[in-house]
Amino acid sequence: MTPRLRHNYQRMTETARTTPAAGTDMPADHWVEDRLPPSLRPYARLARLDRPIGTWLLLLPGWWSLELAGRDWTDLGFFVLFGLGAVVMRGAGCVWNDITDREFDRRVARTRARPIASGAVSVVRALLFMALLLAIGLAILMSFNRFAMALGAASLALVAAYPLMKRITAWPQLVLGLTFNWGALLGWAAITGGIALEPVLLYLGGVLWTLGYDTIYAHQDKEDDALIGIKSSALALGARTRAYLFLFYGGAVLLMAAAGAVAGLGWPFYVLLLVGLCQLVWQAAAVDLDDPADCLAKFRSNRVFGWILLGGIALARALGPGA
């Protein structure tokens, strides 16, 4: 990075630290700014290391699937690999998203300080960084069986297509759901070497879950998006959003319950799934769709639902089918 670009970046990030914009997804204070050298900070931001919620939402469906397939938590190898894979692949996806959206990002209040949009990282350097992340992801994928390797590679088509969807469809959030929940298929494949009805139901439930939480997320930018011509489910649904959130979340829980039934999970799974449903109902009922800060808070709360569901699967597996 040239001295001029570094100065511009540091000035922007210092402004974000002291006076963050309402509804921004950039934290006012974080370890990236406090602990990393200045030359690495824009790349860490580019990979969203300062905003881990997206990594959790990408990772948790994979962990659900590993548990559903019977992989015990005491064998941490697969869980660690999925964790590392989520970090690097979410990072690579964010880099690609920021490259394709750089002109849009400069025109949206929440995103104009992102590294590529602000000029802190050039497109060429961003492409090289993305290549590094993809190489690490490939190395992780090659530790799985051949079927899982092929399945994981297939997800790249969705990763590549997602940033373009907001230009051509009102439902880019659906494409994100198809992308972010791929781990629900991959986890099962990594353990069993194949695919079955259980992970497919879990995957479809995850797609509806993502459609719900990312519609909430999209409400942060609806005014800017409408002005610059970006499409989203938030704009498509408008005043009907809340009713559809109940529909999306309700459908997600029904499909997840069906996955548990096919897998033969006992009552602890359904008890915790009911607790998770209460969390989703709270989101849909309480979110202020005209308050970007509240939309961001409700979006981030989906990590809680993800952990509840993982706990339900793990407890039901631990207690056995007779529980």
Give a verbal description of the structure.
With 323 residues, the chain is mainly alpha-helical. The protein has a single domain (3-7, 31-319), classed as Tetracycline Repressor, domain 2. It has 18 helices and no strands. Helix 5 (77-100) packs parallel to helix 9 (146-165) and helix 9 (146-165) runs antiparallel to helix 10. The longest helix has 24 residues, at 77-100. It is globular, with a radius of gyration of 20 Å. The protein starts with a helix and ends with a helix.
Structural class comes to mainly alpha
Q: State the order of secondary-structure elements, H for helix, E for strand.
A: HHHHHHHHHHHHHHHHHH
Helices, by number, come to 18
Morphology call? globular
**Count of structural domains:** 1
Strand residue content: under 5%
CATH class: Mainly Alpha
Low-confidence stretches: 1-24
Tags for this entry?
disordered N terminus; 73% helix; 323 residues; mainly alpha; Tetracycline Repressor, domain 2; single chain
Brief summary of the model shown:
The chain is 73% helix and 0% strand. The chain is mostly helical and 323 residues long.
Element layout with pairings:
Elements: H1 3-18, H2 31-35, H3 41-46, H4 53-68, H5 77-100, H6 102-105, H7 115-118, H8 123-141, H9 146-165, H10 172-180, H11 183-192, H12 197-218, H13 222-228, H14 233-237, H15 241-262, H16 267-286, H17 292-300, H18 302-319
